[in-house]
Design goal:
The protein has 361 residues and is of the alpha/beta class. The strands form four sheets. Strands 3-2-1-4-8 form a five-stranded mixed beta sheet. Helix 9 links the parallel strand 14 and strand 15. The relative contact order is 0.16.
Length: 361
């Protein structure tokens, strides 16, 4: 079956860069090629450019058309949140709504940098009348123009053609919507456990209704193992994925999951991963009328830790499932994308990015 136009998804993370190449057959997209860099020495644009150039040279992707990501709440350079716009209506023109959203964001100091330096976008969540005031709930995102330019320059440095720059949560949402992963009248939690941050999004009727980042993720777990076991960092990273960091223990007549001793503080203590996720759930349920958290969709490299899904499912009292997209978007039979197998959670954002031209049709 011949391939139609192809595209690249370039997920520039804090620890590595993931690239996925999709091509389109008449029955839908297929993954032609994929690759991941080694650990990045730092978060500079120069390091990312060098790593991406090397990966592109090694993998020999057939297309140069690329969509790259920026993190939705990149420190000091981006923000994303749900806000209420009084007396706005669903039939309002998009340009007028964006003006109202920008005014509200500036007035309430929601943008952590000068508004004239921002690219702002938004979408309507729904009409409401909190405290008897009619209006719209809107989810808005503001990204510093400089950050977008940096991503464009990184792509160009690898001789790629920038087609679009998309925020990470939009790429993830695009993938999950394509997979039809959401219930119509329930709230679905998406937890993206990366190296430096854990992102928590809650989706209602196919749109983000809540987004927050937690400053506890894979690097913090590896650092805890390194200190507790007095081993080298590379050994701690290996230990993180090969050992059972969560265990079942007796609790009266039942058994519960708990974090094992090397990582217990970073998972269980007040500012640990689990209490902060639980606090996000409580905040959402208190802030959103008729909230119904139905399940957690799990992705990101750190989601691959043994039994972390079982630990969170029991402690949060909600089903947790890792994102598996290969049933919806298969691998080509050329063997160039075989490293995705068993690591779908790692490549999910890159796949969502590569899907963007397909989603725009």
């Amino acid at each position: 079956m011949p391939f139609r136009r192809a595209s690249l998804g370039v997920d520039i993370g804090s620890n590595s860069i993931k690239v996925v190449e999709l091509a389109y057959r008449s029955q839908g997209p297929v993954i032609l090629n994929a690759g991941i860099t080694g650990p990045l020495a730092d978060n500079t644009a120069e390091t990312a450019s060098n790593a991406l150039r090397e990966l592109v040279s090694q993998k020999r992707f057939r297309t140069k058309r690329a969509v790259a990501t920026v993190r939705a709440t990149a420190e000091g350079s981006a923000t994303a949140r749900r806000i209420f716009i009084e007396h706005a209506t669903a039939d309002m023109k998009k340009s007028e709504l964006k003006e109202r959203v920008e005014w509200e964001a500036i007035t309430r100091d929601y943008i952590p940098f000068p508004a004239e330096e921002a690219i702002i976008d938004c979408y309507v969540l729904g009409e409401a009348t909190p405290e008897n005031v009619p209006g719209l709930w809107v989810f808005f995102v503001a990204v510093r123009k400089e950050l977008v330019k940096e991503r464009v320059d990184i792509l160009k440095s690898a001789d790629l053609i920038p087609v679009a720059i998309e925020i990470d949560l939009s790429a993830i949402l695009g993938l999950l919507n394509y997979m039809d992963m959401f219930s119509e009248d329930e709230d679905t939690v998406v937890i993206d456990l990366g190296a430096a941050k854990t992102a928590i999004g809650i989706i209602y009727r196919g749109q983000f209704n809540f987004y927050r980042e937690i400053a506890v993720a894979g690097n913090h777990i590896a650092s805890q193992i390194e200190r507790r076991l007095k081993i080298k960092r590379q050994d701690a990273e290996k230990y993180k994925y090969t050992e059972d960091l969560f265990e079942r223990v007796a609790d009266g007549t039942a058994e519960i999951w708990r974090a094992a001793s090397p990582i217990e503080p970073v998972i269980e203590e007040r500012q640990g991963l689990y209490p902060q996720i639980r606090e996000c759930f409580r905040f959402y349920e208190g802030d959103v009328d008729n909230a119904r958290l139905s399940k957690v969709l799990f992705l990101g490299g750190t989601s691959l830790l043994n039994n972390l899904d079982n630990f969170l499912a029991q402690r949060l009292a909600i089903p947790v499932e890792r994102v598996h997209f290969l049933d919806h978007i298969p691998l080509a039979d050329n063997g160039n994308a075989s490293e995705i197998e068993g690591k779908e959670s790692v490549f999910a954002t890159a796949v969502g990015l590569a899907l963007k031209p397909f989603r725009m049709k």
